[in-house]
Amino acid sequence: MDLLRAVPSLAAGPVVDLGCGNGAAAVALATFGRPLSGIDSSPAMLAEAKALGIYDSLHQADIGRWAPDGAPPALIFCNAVLHWLPDHATLIPRLAAMLAPGGTLAVQVPHQNNAPSHRLWLSLAEELFPGRIDPDQGPGVLRPAEYHRLLSPLGELSLWETEYYQQLDACEDGHPVRRFTETTYARPILAALDEGEQARLIAAYEGVMDKVYPAAPDGTVLFPFRRMFFTLTR
């Protein structure tokens, strides 16, 4: 919703929810009153999105290779998806070039890689299992200055970050931050290890999390999570 509120007045053309998932943004995007398409690579997610009955069309596609097959979009909306795709220096200008004149590319990506919650997965894995983990396999997000240099020549750019404080629920089977990160950021790291190695890494990670993100008496944890946003109007 913070990203949508930053979208300027739209040019003529449809709206594309690129990496739409299960349609979490569909209701809000439909308020623009434009033809709304959802693009995702997951058939399961697209089935959930279709059940909403909001999208005018849904397409299964590799979002890194997607291109519109109709009118140029007035808005390409990419919420929490592009960080899983490589080579932003090529990808994002290519998306911007698909826009209608005056159209907007709106992007939000997690920018948490340097926080202890994420960085320690890699540093502990390298300490325990040297050379086993590729540090470049995780989310690929450029520095803000790099996005600025890349995108400011392409149109009107607005770039910002926000740190959100989330209260994570207590977990009976581990630290809440570990449970939060292991199914997303840490997934490829853990996948490279066998079951015993995973247990060693998780134990080491848990020991640090207790100090970095201490739990309240009820077991909940206040967890700061940084996200980067930009809108680029062609």
Automatic annotation (TrEMBL):
<dbReference type="InterPro" id="IPR029063">
    <property type="entry name" value="SAM-dependent_MTases_sf"/>
</dbReference>
<protein>
    <submittedName>
        <fullName>Methyltransferase domain-containing protein</fullName>
    </submittedName>
</protein>
<dbReference type="InterPro" id="IPR023149">
    <property type="entry name" value="Trans_acon_MeTrfase_C"/>
</dbReference>
<keyword id="KW-0489">Methyltransferase</keyword>
<keyword id="KW-0808">Transferase</keyword>
<dbReference type="GO" id="GO:0032259">
    <property type="term" value="P:methylation"/>
</dbReference>
<dbReference type="Pfam" id="PF13489">
    <property type="entry name" value="Methyltransf_23"/>
</dbReference>
<dbReference type="GO" id="GO:0008168">
    <property type="term" value="F:methyltransferase activity"/>
</dbReference>
